[in-house]
Amino acid sequence: MRPTIQEALNWASLFLKQHNREEKVAELLLIHVLGLSRLDFLMQLQEQIRPDVYDTFKQMVTRHATTGIPLQHLTGEEQFYDRTFKVTKDTLIPRQETEELMYYLLKDLNKRPHLTDVVDVGTGTGVLAITLKLEQPHLNVYAVDISDAALRVAKDNANTLGALVTMQSSDFLSHFIETDQHVDVIVSNPPYIPYSDLDSLSDTVKNFDPHLALFSEEDGLYSYRTIIAGATHVLRPHGLMAFEIGHNQKEAVTALIKRAFPDATVETKQDMFGRDRMVFMYQDV
After folding, report:
1. CA distance linking residue 64 with residue 186, whole number of Å
2. Which parts of 83-202 fold into alpha helices (H)?
3. Is the per-residue pLDDT at 281 higher than 90?
4. Residues in the annotated binding site
5. For residue 105, which phi and psi values (nearest 5 degrees)?
6. Residues 15, 65: contact at Cβ < 8 Å?
7. Where are the beta strands (DSSP E) in the chain?
8. 1 exposed, middle or buried (CB, 10 Å; 0-12, 13-18, 19+)?
9. Is the pLDDT at 261 greater than 90, yes or no?
10. For labelling, which of 48, 134, 144, 180 has a CA lying 20 to 30 Å from the CA of 230?
11. pLDDT at 96
């Protein structure tokens, strides 16, 4: 007799718990393989599950439990700002902190309609650049990344979501410096984890997220130092710069900005857990 959806869910939840994994993953994976909305899923818990679907589900659950492969790599997608983005092994999985960065940046741009040219440095999946364009269509948005594989994912996401974003291969801001191109806003969620923290990370992160998007030299500050140095050539007067940061990097990143832009105002914003997670620089305050 074929198992019901509820029985499949019960098995997977227990299996994940036994492997010290988050039980919620079972429901998310089952909804994915069934192709149902969460409401339909809940309404059909007593329905039987097809054998081929159940086999696929068991394989996904087993892989996640035994290797730590992220849910998003199994489903190939992640939600960001209420939109579905494609993710692959070549891109960092979008996280909640980056949504908070987007929220605060959009609030600032609403107050500054004269800032129209924006570059997202290290775009990865393209979530920042694409969301900016879709939320504020008047913006001219550029997205750069040194990884051609990541850029292909970002382009796919832009095409799927209908966002007109200019994608460019670039090592941080080097393309803009070389072409003497200037922008009003620089935003980035760059690599900021020190290599010394590698062993402390979960297997889901260190074994599957691309290290190019995670780790940075100089105690995690190399990316900030390079972008900020480039910003002195690229950012227009009265411009704005916004970074996601590690929870203990507030002072260091603020000092780097103040050395390069001594007259600017620098503010730190906290995430929903009260951790210092974003640094914003304003030249028009």
Report:
1. 36
2. 96-111, 127-135, 148-161, 174-178
3. yes
4. 122-126, 145, 172, 189-192
5. -65, -45
6. yes
7. 77-80, 83-86, 117-121, 140-145, 166-169, 183-188, 193-194, 215-216, 235-244, 265-270, 276-282
8. exposed
9. yes
10. 134
11. 87
Tell me if 57 sits within 8 A of 103, measured CB to CB. Answer: no
Residue partners of 258: CB distance under 8 A and separation at least 6: 264, 266
Contact 124, 146 (CB under 8 A): no
Both tokens of residue 47?
Answer: 């329905």
Digit-coded pLDDT (tens) for 227-239: 999 999 999 999 9
CB-based contact 73:28 (threshold 8 Å): no
Confirm if 36 and 75 have CB atoms less than 8 A apart: no
Judged by phi (left if over 0) then psi (alpha if -120 to 50, else beta), residue 172 lies in left
- What pTM, to 2 d.p., does this model score? 0.88
Count the neighbouring beta carbons within 10 Å of the beta carbon of residue 275: 14
**Token pair for 176:** 């803009």
Residue found by looking up tokens 């700002």 in the block? 81
**Site of tokens 């589900």:** 57
> Count of CB atoms within 10 A of residue 122's CB?
24
**Residue 203 confidence (pLDDT):** 59
Q: How far apart are CA 213 and CA 192, in angstroms?
A: 8
Report the SS3 class of residue 1. Answer: coil
Binding-site positions for substrate: 189-192
200-215: string of b/e by CB count within 10 Å (b at 16+)? Answer: eeeebbbebbbebbbb
Q: 106: number of CA atoms within 13 Å, CB side? A: 18
Residue 227 exposure: Cα atoms within 13 Å on the Cβ side: 28
Integer Cα distance of 106 and 104 in angstroms: 5
Contact between 58 and 13 (Cβ < 8 Å): no
As annotated, the binding site for S-adenosyl-L-methionine includes: 122-126, 145, 172, 189
- Give the chain's mean pLDDT: 89
Q: Residue 39 contacts by C-beta under 8 Å, 6 or more apart in sequence?
A: none
